[in-house]
Amino acid sequence: MPSRSPVYTQLQVVRTARYGDATTCAKALGIDPKSLVAYERGDRVPDRRMQAKLAAGLGLPWAALARRVPLKATAIVAQPIGCRSALELVRRLTFKHRLEAARAVGVSADVFEGWESGTRPASPAHQKKLAEIFGLPYELLASPAPRFERKSLHA
Questions:
Q1: Quick one: how far is CA 148 from the chain centroid?
Q2: In Å, how far are 29, 31, 32, 118, 148 from 51, measured between CA atoms?
Q3: Which domain holds residue 98?
Q4: Whole-structure pTM value
């Protein structure tokens, strides 16, 4: 069986940032967890009604949730427990090191760490840049990270 490339949908990233595991998210949205995982992997495409339900439940348009996002294979196994914010969680899933993320935004690693910890607010310009890089609204990135035990984006 060929191995999957480390490419996931934004649906997984948003679900992980908001709910943690797929089962918790599926219960909150009133859908089957196996269906949610199939939508996340791109194995199935939800019908329009389900797309609307997912979009409403996760707070983003379906087109944004369906976007494919490359994640570094080494980041997939990074344990997200202990993340202080959704920004830190998504950064760990997207970049191997904080310095890489900081350079992408154009700030020092110390400034980026302040954003992750919530001790330093990002300027409006940096909020916009963070939203562009991670493909998520800044309000979501600044929210507390969920607490969960899983080590991957899958349930």
A1: 14
A2: 12, 12, 14, 32, 25
A3: 73-141
A4: 0.51
